[in-house]
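ok new one. same drill as before - structure tokens go in, u give me an amino acid for every spot. 326 of them this time. try not to just spam alanines like last time pls lmao
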């Protein structure tokens, strides 16, 4: 559930599904003027959104049907009049589900008030580096919010597993001293030994510092993303013009050599890894001897990316590999 909460009534989804089905069963009265495509709405719990093309009277007819649908499903007061005054008018720029959507520039942005809330949340004493007494409820709130933030800042997505790991097999947590309230349930990291536990905490604090680093970037270029980046890779490639901007790369590594190639530009690099192997193995910290091969393959791609960064600007770079952990 959103924001890490698992207590939301399940019937909320049933009601929104009924509203979506009822609204989608209608189409405009004049198909020659408004097209023949039925109305469509998107829902998050009981919060509905209509996205329509500017064709004839479709937008206004669709909104009128949606209002009637919400009153039919939730009752005469099913429409929030105050919220309608703030967000209910059709516009190419709109606040949808707490995110600012701009359909002219096709960008999604985290509003400034929510950025301030992010700073307040990360300012909690329990979330500072070195503190290992993290309330379970606070961690759940953090994880839920972080998942929400990734819509406007996809760069946070790789750090979500680090946050999730603290909940692994340990949702009951352990009781803190003194209080018996829910807020006193502390997170207990699942680890085989103290060294792994310390590493999990370090990864957790590093992830939080990365989020704080994004907040320090200028408002115009942080927590903002284009619609295209919200789609899975296959759907992005189906968009007009994206295939022409796609670039296929690849790489491989052994215990002796690394290499990577930019197939579109027909450029490659290769090198021996003797001078890097021990340093990379120390950074890897754990795993089998052969696991260092994956780390070296990652190094091969990073070197290629640094060398080709100018040519890759604005492109969709795809890395093809024979393993899943690079």
């Amino acid at each position: 559930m959103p924001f890490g909460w698992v207590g939301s009534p399940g019937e909320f989804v049933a009601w929104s599904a009924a509203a979506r089905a009822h609204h989608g069963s209608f189409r405009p009265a004049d198909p020659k003027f408004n097209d023949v495509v039925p109305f469509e709405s998107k829902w998050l719990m009981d919060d509905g959104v209509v996205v329509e093309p500017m064709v004839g009277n479709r937008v206004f007819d669709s909104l009128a049907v949606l209002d009637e649908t919400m009153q039919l499903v939730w009752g005469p007061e099913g429409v929030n009049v105050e919220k309608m005054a703030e967000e209910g008018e059709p516009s190419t720029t709109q606040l949808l589900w707490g995110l600012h959507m701009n359909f002219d520039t096709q960008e999604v942005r985290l509003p400034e008030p929510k950025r301030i809330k992010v700073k307040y949340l990360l300012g909690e004493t329990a979330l500072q580096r070195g503190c290992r007494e993290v309330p379970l409820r606070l961690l759940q709130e953090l994880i839920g919010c972080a998942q929400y933030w990734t819509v406007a800042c996809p760069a946070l997505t790789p750090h979500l597993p680090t946050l999730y790991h603290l909940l692994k097999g340990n949702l009951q947590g352990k009781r803190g001293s003194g209080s018996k309230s829910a807020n006193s349930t502390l997170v207990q990291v699942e680890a085989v030994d103290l060294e792994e536990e310390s590493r999990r905490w370090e990864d957790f604090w590093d992830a939080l510092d990365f989020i704080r680093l994004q907040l320090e970037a200028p408002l115009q270029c942080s927590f903002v993303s284009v619609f295209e980046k919200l789609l899975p890779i296959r759907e992005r490639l189906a968009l007009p013009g994206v295939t022409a901007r796609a670039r296929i790369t690849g790489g491989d590594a052994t215990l002796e050599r690394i290499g990577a190639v930019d197939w579109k530009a027909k450029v490659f690099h290769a090198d021996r890894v003797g001078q890097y192997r021990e340093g990379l193995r120390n950074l890897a910290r754990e795993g089998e001897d052969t696991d260092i091969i994956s780390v070296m393959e990652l190094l091969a791609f990073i070197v290629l990316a640094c060398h080709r960064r100018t040519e890759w600007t604005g492109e969709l770079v795809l890395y093809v590999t024979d393993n899943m952990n690079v």
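Residues 173-180 have pLDDT under 50 and may be disordered. and btw The longest strand covers residues 246-253.
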